[in-house]
Design goal:
- The chain is built from four helices and seven strands, in the order E-H-E-H-E-E-H-E-E-E-H.
- It is an alpha/beta fold.
- It has a seven-stranded mixed β-sheet.
- Strand 4, helix 3 and strand 5 form a beta-alpha-beta unit.
Length: 151
């Protein structure tokens, strides 16, 4: 497993971190984001999408659960499981339809789907540390290692 620990001291740097990983995203990858409310998970996703050329509005999918972003060569599924109270609820949302396909699944609050979601290629934990964030990235698969290359 490849791991990285990065200190991010403002929103622009969180966006830049997402942007730096974007060129290595490949169809079928699963990236799971963890961290408390307001940690910067959606900001990180906004950076990923910006790095792929997306210029539209990126919102947290807390209420819609899934926000698809269709790009020229792939679809990014931004998924938020915050409102789920049990992992079994994932089945009723249809999340499995997105996993393992040709899109990239970026899942916030993935720990709420533990035991039901397939394993991630990379897990990104974002923690508050006063006015900065500590970002810990664990790349768990061979595909994940490609994603984390250069960090």
């Amino acid at each position: 497993m490849i791991s990285a620990r990065i200190v991010v001291d403002n929103e622009e740097r969180m966006l830049a971190l997402g942007e730096s990983m974007a060129p290595r995203l490949r169809p079928g990858q699963r990236v799971y984001l963890q961290g408390e409310l307001g940690a910067g998970k959606t900001t990180f996703v906004r950076g990923l999408l910006r790095g792929l050329g997306y210029r539209g509005h990126v919102k947290s999918p807390t209420y819609t659960l899934v926000e698809p972003y269709e790009l020229a060569d792939m679809v990014i599924y931004h998924i938020d499981l915050y409102r789920l109270t049990a992992p079994e609820e994932i089945e009723s949302v249809g999340i499995r339809d997105y996993m393992g396909g040709s899109g990239v699944c970026v899942v916030e609050w993935a720990e709420r789907g533990e035991g039901v979601l397939p394993p991630p290629d990379a897990t990104i934990m974002i923690q508050h540390d006063y006015d900065r964030r500590i970002v810990e990235i664990d790349c768990c698969t061979e595909v994940g290692h490609e994603l984390c290359g250069g960090l």
